[in-house]
Amino acid sequence: MNHKANAKILFQKGLEAVQPQNLLYEHKLLEDKKITLLGSGKASVEMAKAFMEKNAQQVKKAFVVSNYYEDIEGLDVCVSSHPTPSLRSITSAKRLRETLSSLGEEEVFVYMLSGGTSAMIEEPIEPITMEEFEKTTALLLQTLASIDEINIVRKHLSLVKGGRLGYCTKALGVVFVISDVIGDDLEAIGSAPLYCDSSSCADAKAILLKYDLWKKVSKSIQNVIDVCHHESPKVPNPKIKHTIVASNILCLQAIQKEAFAMGYDAKIITDEISGNVRDVAKKILQNSRDLQSDKPLCLLFGGESTVEVTGRGKGGRNQELCLWVLKELKEDENITFLSAGTDGIDGMSDAAGAVVNRDDLHENINYYLQNNDSYHYHKRYNGAIVTGKSGTNVMDVMMVIKE
Fold first, then answer.
1. Which helix H or strand E contains 111, and what residues bound it?
2. What does pLDDT average to in each consecutive run of 10 residues of the chain (403 residues)?
3. What CATH code would you report for 3-12+248-402?
4. Which among 323, 307, 245 is positioned nearest to 274, based on CA atoms?
5. CATH topology of domain 20-246
6. For the chain, domain boundaries
7. How do 335-341 and 353-357 pair as beta strands?
């Protein structure tokens, strides 16, 4: 069996299962109602497109915020920034707030929410400037801070995150969610613009202190967090309902089903992988070494690792994770490893991730690891997986195939 080729096929099967056009967008609140369709995130365009194809007669207005433009009749797509917010993010946030605020008590809206929203819609609390907000986000992204920690900080600098956007409207709403966070936590997905937030200003400060960033952020940000006049709402707007339509486990289950059909003994180990890529590599390999089968094994993991950026290379967490797995492999281990982002974008590169086996280990791997240059390693040795923007986003998929 060609395990590397099969791993790529299996990853594609997983992606298909969480494509927006293959999901269900149904809620009793929407029956026979005229709907204002809104959304934000990496999957918002495809989600809105899928909804409109099935409910065209009900949609009276449609506007979404995305990181790319697509010309779709009846859908107004506003292109914003990702992974770092910009002035485009402010324009997008204000437009969403104005649209939601204009809706009456008996009107109904649908909101398509997916990962990437945190950067794409933003309106800093005054007197914080967008430049200050961008710098803080960039500083956090260069640390080992988890996406949850990054979003906790951003929620307490923002007029739209942590449920604030949801409280600017009197209308009835249904939020369809593609989850890109561990545990499908509604407080974390997209920084919860229409839900609520149990974290506090004190939590935000603790995170900045934890990563030695408190003295590196502006005085305006320090003051907003310390004074805390804009604490986030602690309960959701009761007129807005959230429904998760896709998550990482759905993707893993589709891969498992296809792997069985291919003849593998397929097992889902966890959908809660997190931590530094080096530690994750060791954890995944240890799990793999502990399991045996009469058939080739296909072990599935989901979640999201982190990378501490110290070099000037190009890559992302999935490609770097593959390098660490390669480095940790024993000489006699017949293991194929894939790690890829379901959004099709790994870090600042055009690759989704990579797939490797022992034959891909070369003497210069340490140079690429030290320089955080995993992209060029995989390009050089033909391990990169390039899918283009996938139209969805349910975190990362990691796959071990062993005999």
1. strand 108-113
2. 97 98 96 96 96 96 96 97 90 97 98 95 95 92 86 94 97 98 93 97 98 97 96 97 98 98 98 96 95 96 93 96 96 95 94 97 95 97 94 96 94
3. 3.40.1480.10
4. 307
5. Rossmann fold (3.40.50)
6. 3-12+248-402, 20-246
7. antiparallel
